[in-house]
Write a structure and sequence with these properties.
The protein is an alpha+beta fold. It folds into two domains: about 40 residues, no CATH class; about 130 residues, D-Maltodextrin-Binding Protein, domain 2. It is about 25% helix and about 25% strand. The strands form three sheets. A five-stranded mixed sheet has the order 6-5-7-11-9, sandwiched between helices. The chain has a four-stranded antiparallel sheet with strand order 1-2-3-4, with helices on one face. Strands 8-10 form a two-stranded antiparallel sheet. α1 packs across α4. The N and C termini lie far apart (about 35 Å).
Length: about 190
């Protein structure tokens, strides 16, 4: 098994009113939309870039009481809005589907968090490293964002099991770096 930084491609497909394929082969991120008349995908966005800053976060707030202190601190600061230490209002978006949340972040910025949870202290997270965190992390990084488990870049984690789980924080670079700094005690 190899770390995510050895991937050669990553992508996903979203089905809905339109069918969208998002793909990286290591040279940026491209978005394709299915043209039903032609029966093929057409490039609709090239060189997708995630804004470094954001006013949106995606996290399952019902689990707040189970989070580690650095995550609680970050979310609390976001919720304090303009009057708080961040000096700006944030909006929460939570689709409860990593692919859909990452898609929104690729389209308009934001930060997605599925952190470690005290209910199962021996598990490092819920999402699977090899086939959830690594592909989504690489897409986000290829679009100028960042992906971490709070302490280490997702793509640098050496897997030890096929279904290994990790904590995930990814999206707009400055927000991910802020959460990471809280984990390191700064």
């Amino acid at each position: 098994m190899q770390p995510g930084n050895q991937q050669v491609a990553a992508g996903y497909c979203i089905y809905g009113p339109q069918t969208t394929l998002v793909l990286t082969v290591g040279d940026g991120v491209a978005m394709f939309t299915l043209d039903r008349e032609q029966g093929s995908f057409v490039l609709t966005r090239d060189n997708i870039r995630i804004p470094e800053d954001t006013k949106e976060f995606a996290i399952n707030m019902s689990n707040m009481r189970h989070w580690d202190e650095p995550v609680k601190r970050y979310i609390d600061e976001c919720l304090q809005g303009k009057e708080g230490p961040r000096g700006k209002d944030f909006n929460m978006r939570w689709i409860a589907s990593m692919v859909s949340d990452v898609h929104r972040i690729l389209c308009r910025g934001g930060v997605f968090m599925y952190p470690w949870d005290k209910r199962e202290p021996n598990k490092p997270g819920k999402l699977r490293l090899m086939y959830e965190a690594n592909p989504m992390g690489w897409l986000v990084e290829q679009a100028g964002g960042a992906a971490t488990n709070g302490r280490q870049r997702i793509l640098d984690i050496q897997p030890t099991q096929l279904h290994e789980r990790v904590s995930v924080i990814l999206g707009s670079k400055n927000e991910v770096e802020r959460v990471t700094s809280y984990h390191s005690g700064t």
